[in-house]
Write a sequence for this structure.
């Protein structure tokens, strides 16, 4: 039995305690070369975000992976606040799954946090043979000390939303978390809430379909998802499927409220720019309702004119959402329109937009897309220039400081889609920006003194993706 004591393990006692944690000084970001033309391995970058440091806004370390074309994507921890009372646990390993190669890298961030090193590589054959799964995505640590990773598919590239369990000490692949034959048709993200004995997962699409870009015909053929799945946390049984319909097509990031007693949360649905609230009903089952819809814009000159839903009406494509640790604000990125939005979610069923900022995107006023009808804007947004650089691509991955006052953003979604929708992003590399947040009344302001330009990397422009703090953050820690 692991020794127990109050507060001897990693993380924080509660989300509100986490808000009082130390300010972030460094962050980790996976940097991707797949689809860029640069024949180099992906790497984990360490970036200095301490304004008092002489290396502020600089990449201070790069850890290359031992293989090519992995497509590093999201990451998680071997232990987080779910192990807060377990003195035997320590947040010392960053779990770094590869979306395309299906490798899982385990990174030692404890020996020298500013210069991480490779601890172990879990080869894909382990996942293939032991679990019948591939294309790992979201990694969460469990209170048991194990690590759980969701998957998009099977070894043949078909959709299969299952879950891989790793031993939290050896990182050996153990088995499937889900029961035999109960994997979802598609997979992507997940979040669990033990006090309500529930885990909920989302859907993207079949890996062999989305691997090389987006084809609208694949939507008609059923290769992308529109459901979220409810699982019994104790028995691992798949108990409910919530079909969100066409408005909920491609539900990606899912976030429960951070309060572990809360029985509700939000999921961002990419294709039609909607956010659904999911919640536990008085009967004890789960339901979902749309609470936000970003109006599409009537346009001409769109990058994919053959798209049935995009021919005349360009969706925002919500790609990342995040909730502040006090459960007051929700943020999301519209990767095609080019804006980030902040909503006050104090009234859970009626989010109220209190902040918006445009940072690139497809509808800039000097670009090829002409907006013919817009229900929100009077004019097309101007390009954004930070420290002399015009922002390529569009805001995508988000990470909020523990105190909620700084919102970091990167501009790469996924290399194949970057190449298709923002070819200049492939040539110039992505950037990391910082937005200063008004946490009293709401509001977003670009910090003009902060920019990390991944177009200037030693081996050529690279695509930086998800942001992680060494001490945990809003999207990796779960409280029991």
């Amino acid at each position: 039995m692991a020794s127990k004591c109050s507060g001897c393990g990693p993380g924080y006692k509660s989300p509100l305690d986490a808000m009082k944690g130390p300010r972030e000084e460094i962050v980790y970001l996976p940097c991707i070369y797949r689809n860029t033309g640069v024949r180099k391995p992906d790497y984990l970058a360490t970036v200095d975000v301490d304004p008092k440091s002489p290396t502020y806004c600089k990449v201070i370390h790069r850890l290359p992976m031992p293989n090519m074309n992995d497509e590093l994507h999201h990451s998680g921890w071997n232990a987080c606040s779910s192990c807060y009372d377990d003195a035997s646990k320590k947040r010392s390993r960053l779990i770094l799954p590869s979306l395309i190669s299906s490798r899982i890298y385990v990174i030692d961030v404890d020996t020298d946090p500013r210069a991480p090193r490779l601890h172990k590589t879990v080869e894909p054959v382990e996942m293939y043979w032991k679990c019948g799964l591939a294309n790992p995505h979201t990694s969460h640590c469990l209170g048991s000390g194990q690590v759980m990773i969701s998957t998009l598919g099977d070894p043949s590239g078909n959709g299969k939303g299952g879950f891989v369990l790793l031993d939290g000490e050896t990182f050996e692949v153990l088995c499937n978390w889900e029961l035999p034959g109960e994997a979802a048709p598609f997979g992507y993200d997940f979040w669990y809430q033990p006090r309500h004995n529930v885990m909920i997962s989302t859907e993207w699409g079949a890996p062999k379909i989305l691997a090389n870009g987006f084809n609208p015909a694949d939507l008609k053929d059923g290769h992308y998802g529109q459901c979220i799945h409810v699982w019994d946390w104790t028995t691992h049984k798949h108990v409910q499927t919530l079909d969100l319909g066409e408005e909920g097509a491609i539900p990606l990031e899912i976030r429960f409220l951070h309060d572990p007693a809360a029985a509700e949360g939000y999921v961002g649905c990419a294709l039609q720019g909607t956010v659904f609230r999911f919640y536990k009903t008085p009967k004890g089952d789960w339901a979902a309702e749309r609470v936000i819809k970003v109006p599409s814009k009537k346009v001409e000159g769109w990058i994919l004119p053959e798209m049935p839903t995009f021919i005349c009406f360009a969706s925002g494509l919500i790609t990342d959402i995040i909730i502040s640790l006090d459960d007051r604000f929700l943020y999301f990125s519209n990767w095609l329109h080019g804006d980030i939005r902040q909503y006050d979610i104090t009234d859970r069923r009626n989010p109220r937009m209190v902040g918006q900022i445009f940072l690139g995107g497809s509808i800039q006023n000097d670009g090829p897309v002409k907006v013919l009808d817009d229900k929100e804007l009077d004019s097309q947004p101007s390009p954004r220039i930070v420290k002399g650089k015009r922002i390529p691509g569009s805001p995508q991955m988000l990470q909020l400081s523990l105190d909620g006052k700084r919102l970091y953003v990167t501009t790469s979604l996924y290399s194949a889609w970057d190449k298709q929708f923002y070819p200049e992003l492939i040539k110039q590399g992505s950037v990391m920006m910082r937005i200063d947040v008004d946490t009293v009344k709401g509001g977003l302001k670009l910090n003009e003194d902060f920019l990390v330009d991944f177009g200037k990397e030693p081996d050529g422009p690279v695509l930086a993706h998800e942001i992680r703090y060494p001490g945990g953050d809003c999207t990796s820690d779960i409280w029991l």
